[in-house]
From TrEMBL:
A biological process from GO: monoatomic ion transmembrane transport
Organism (species): Cannabis sativa
Highest classification ranks of the organism: Eukaryota, Viridiplantae, Streptophyta, Embryophyta, Tracheophyta
Protein name: Aluminum-activated malate transporter
Membrane topology: Multi-pass membrane protein
Membrane-spanning intervals of the chain: 49-68, 80-98, 105-125, 131-151, 158-178, 190-212
Keyword tags: Ion channel, Ion transport, Membrane, Transmembrane, Transmembrane helix, Transport
Length: 493
């Protein structure tokens, strides 16, 4: 017979009462944490809160089929299909809502017509053979439609419509065998589905619309900007060089979180393809006209991911314990820093041009500078006697240099793709301006340039030029020049 230790019973009771006493504090803590998570979720993207309110508004509108007696008398219990349509069709972005709404409407119309046709065809046969005819038609269409869903392009855009097609055709053809007044029932359900879909589309477009195309546009620019941030800071971080601002460099070395931003680019493919698919359903809006080249964004995104993979390989060398000899490091340092900096400036310029939808003219110069640095690196390596160095010691630094050369080529492809996008999407052209470095040394302003008199000179020995604004080139008042008698003394503005 088992003996129970009596000393354990008070401990169990005390533990139970302790947990019971701590229960209110635990519940309070959980409620506070849930509130913080809700606040953070809404603060990260306020559009989520607006979307929730939009769904509630759409459901309230279609529920009038039950609340208003005239509508209920006209549609009856079929009004529930409008509610179901809003629940399954209303998506976060306008493109996703339009895609689902159009897919559902077209699939319902097509499947409804075929279902009625199948019932009419079966009515031509004896009563005993009608189930066989209907069953055969359901089998053939369901199997063919399901197989069609495996095509990648069809699955990407019309998968939801194919599912609704199978469901609607099966419901009409099967239930029509036993249900009277099939046409009236089909008309009511089809009408409520179309009304529910139209309600979703109108609310989605008219009330604080969220455009998938705009999100794809911003995501592409943001990803390129993340790559630029890494490349701009890599050279100084890897070679431990410091610019003039010591405080800024210390902050960068202490906080290298900006070097990890590129990792989000590696996992953005699914999101980009989804946004591009939804964007193709959207009508022209804002700066994005009808038939905007959304596929070009996917091309740029693929190249950006390729660059991100190269940066991942580059980043892995930063943690290597193998230190290259100082002679070899000094040989490649200048070219590597320049390649890293110029490619970063190129991507930064491309990201800015995409955001502003302007031609990326300034990126071309940085691309050429990075290519020049790559050529200089190759020339320096060919001229140096690297066979005397330890290959195991220089392999890490050599890998960095080789990867940077590949990044230069990849960034050039990204630049070409962005230039193609700017032409296809008709980005604004930026007028060429004269940079301060290339500006002329002497600028003439409105007024008279007075010469500085040297010893023994008079006013008649100099050229006096008067510049006027808005005067025609052939006007005699544009320049008032006196012919010098002997020589011209230098004038100081």
């Amino acid at each position: 017979m088992e003996v129970v230790d009596q000393s354990v019973i008070p401990q169990q009771k005390s533990g139970f009462f302790a947990r019971l006493k701590a229960l209110p504090c635990k519940v309070k803590h959980n409620i506070i944490m849930v509130g913080k998570n809700i606040k953070k979720l809404g603060k990260d993207d306020p559009r989520r809160v607006i979307h929730s309110l939009k769904v509630g508004l759409a459901l309230t509108l279609v529920s009038l089929f039950y609340y208003l007696k005239p509508l209920y008398d006209g549609f009856g219990m079929s009004g529930i299909w409008a509610v179901l349509t809003v629940v399954v069709v209303f998506e976060f972005s306008v493109g996703a809502t339009l895609g689902k709404g159009i897919n559902r409407a077209c699939a319902t119309l097509t499947a409804g017509a075929l279902g009625v046709g199948a019932l009419h065809l079966s009515s031509l046969f004896p009563k005993e053979e009608q189930p066989i005819i209907l069953g055969s038609l359901v089998f053939v269409l369901a199997a063919a439609t399901t197989f069609t869903r495996f095509f990648p392009k069809i699955k990407a855009r019309y998968d939801y419509g194919l599912i609704i097609f199978i469901l609607t055709f099966s419901m009409i053809s099967i239930s029509g065998y036993r249900v009277d007044k099939l046409l009236q029932m089909a008309h009511q359900r089809l009408s409520t589905i179309l009304i529910g879909g139209a309600t979703c589309i109108i609310v989605s477009i008219c009330v604080c619309p969220v455009w998938a195309g705009q999100d794809l546009h911003n995501l592409t620019a943001s990803n390129i900007d993340k790559l630029a941030n890494y490349l701009e800071g890599f050279g100084d971080t890897y070679f431990q060089t410091a610019p003039e601002d010591k405080d800024c460099v210390n902050d960068i070395k202490n906080d290298k979180s900006f070097l990890q931003g590129y990792k989000s680019v590696l996992n953005s493919k699914a999101n980009e393809e989804s946004l591009a698919n939804f964007a193709r359903w959207e009508p022209g809006h804002g700066r994005f006209l009808f038939r905007h080249p959304w596929k070009q964004y996917l091309k740029i995104a693929a190249l950006a991911r390729q660059c991100a993979y190269l940066i991942e390989a580059l980043n892995s060398q930063c943690s290597s314990d193998i230190q290259a000899p100082p002679d070899f490091t000094s040989l490649i340092q200048e070219s590597c820093i320049k390649m890293s900096s110029e490619t970063g400036k190129t991507l930064k310029s491309l990201a800015t041009s995409i955001k502003a939808m302007k031609h990326p003219n300034s990126a071309t110069e940085h691309v050429e500078n990075s290519k020049t640095a790559a050529k200089d690196l190759k020339s320096a390596l060919e001229a140096a006697a690297i066979e005397d160095l330890d290959l195991l010691a220089i392999i890490s630094a050599a890998t960095v240099a080789s990867t940077l050369v590949e990044i230069v080529e990849c960034v050039e492809k990204i630049s070409d793709s962005v230039h193609e996008l700017s032409q296809m999407a008709h980005f604004k052209k930026v007028e060429a301006t004269v940079s301060p470095e290339k500006a002329p040394q002497m600028l003439l302003h409105r007024g008279t340039v007075k010469p500085v008199l040297l010893d023994g000179d008079t006013d008649d020995d100099h050229v006096v030029i008067t510049v006027h604004d808005d005067i025609a080139s052939d006007s005699p008042d544009k320049q008032n020049v006196k012919t010098p008698k002997t020589r011209v003394a230098p004038a100081v503005l």
